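[audit] Reproducing an earlier prediction to check determinism. Same input, same settings, fresh worker. If the tokens differ from the archived copy the diff job will pick it up downstream; this log only records the rerun itself.
[audit] input (172 residues):
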Amino acid sequence: MQLSDKELSADHLEVAGLVGQAMARLFRAASRAKAADIARGGDFHSVPLLLVLRENGALRSQELAECLHTDPSTISRQVAVLVDRGLVAREPDPDDRRAARLVLTPAGERALDERMAARQRYLAELLADWPMADRRELARLLGRFADEFAESTATAHLPQPTPAQQTSESPS
């Protein structure tokens, strides 16, 4: 739903600002957690890659990079580690025997299940003091927001500042 400037009340903008601030804190915390996991030699950062392979089946590296909206060189490095660990395998592409497709191995399936269960336990512990009704409401609203955010970002670019905003926000 697109609101016109006249429909954007101060309340709309205030709440949107609060949501944006919360998202920024969440993304920073997630980045810290990812960096800490990598520093400890963990591989929770590989969960999105493993999930995409589980959901989509065999993919070429370029297709995997597109699914994850990341650079192919980044995917190449991550895949190499996962192949070495036996979590992902390369198989010949039946459409082009010169190319390879990436597949989740049985060990990769088990590792993904373990990591997803660990994440579930972690979040359950994090929310343990919340009333169950609040937990369910968070899950419902966060799921709704994630779906709408994903749909919005899949079909359009993020809004750009208006010329007036660019002028007022530019450094003096």
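[audit] rerun output stored. Observation attached for the diff report: The mean pLDDT is 87.
[audit] end
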